[in-house]
Amino acid sequence: MSARPDGSDEHHLIAKYFRPLVRHPGALGLMDDAAMFTPPEGCDLVLTKDAIVEDVHFFAEDPAGAIAHKVLRVNLSDLAAKGAVPAGFLLALGLPESVSPQWLQDFADSLGQDAETYGCPLLGGDTVKSPGPVMMSVTAFGTLPRGSMVRRSGAKGGDLVFVTGTIGDAALGLRLRKENAGREHWDLDDAMRDHLASRYLLPQPRNALAEAVRTHASAAMDVSDGLAGDLEKLCRASGVGAVIEVSRLPVSPAGQAVLAADAQAIETILTGGDDYEIVCAIAPARAASFRAAARKAGVAVSEIGRVAEGEGASFIAADGKALNFARTSFSHF
Predict the structure, then answer these.
(1) Structural domains of the chain sorted by starting position, each given as residue range(s) with its CATH number in brackets
(2) CB-hemisphere CA count at 13 Å for 139?
(3) What's this model's pTM, rounded to 2 decimal places?
(4) Selected residue with higher pLDDT from 277 and 3
(5) What backbone phi and psi angles, to 5 degrees, belong to 281?
(6) d(Cα 147, Cα 265) in Å, to the nearest integer?
(7) Residue 302: enclosing H or E segment and its boundaries?
(8) Who's near 54: CB < 8 A, 6+ residues apart?
């Protein structure tokens, strides 16, 4: 990486902003070409990788700290859906020369906070110069007892479909920022607008529920591209269908206010993405235990439907008719 305007090169950038975050001995103080990690005895290593790009996943004016939270948390969400405990991560940063020392300090501080909060230490990575937008990628590692990872492919007919948290807030928050839709038509108060904006800006991964997912779910996945499309992926992997009752979807008070003003917003809620919740299939005999485990973990869960024979996921409205969507999920291409 070439010298930065403030006189620091890549080595000094790493030393100043990221070496202070190192807590794991396998990171070798970020002084080597690679890191070392040994999974606990009897455990599998679960790997996931997500990248985020300016003007695609976040706005240029978003705070550096919020961007740091987002890039780590979207990966932590994947680990949670597999039932894995976070163990560490690698970070790659593509930075234009316009990035300031204060931006880097705020980014590093917030990244370190989340690394501590979620028990997911920085192990290494890379920094490069970007001729365009800020871009970054995290490779996260998790562990779980050998052979116990929850896949997409295990759902069985008769399983109940559960989802965590609330659905659609982040996608509505993105619409607020891009279209100002709520200001004129949705009749939201300041608290509701702030809630929707925050859900887009700051994901809340459900890692507290990881053990309950691992010990109860027959199939699960992270909801990042929209519940409709992601549940479709789970059904396809499992060779089953699913019937979802739209009236049972967990929608926040802000989301309900949007629907009261614009019933067509249900498509945004179901297909917009950026929820970072977990959708999972639970055998009926394990449903009560799963609900109890979720209460203990402090994570809200809602039963929204059932796994059935057939293919794909159907979303049934209160009038008994299936909803049709222009597209079922977000896609980059």
Answers:
(1) 10-145 (3.30.1330.10), 152-316 (3.90.650.10)
(2) 9
(3) 0.93
(4) 277
(5) -105, 130
(6) 41
(7) strand 301-308
(8) 60, 133, 134, 135
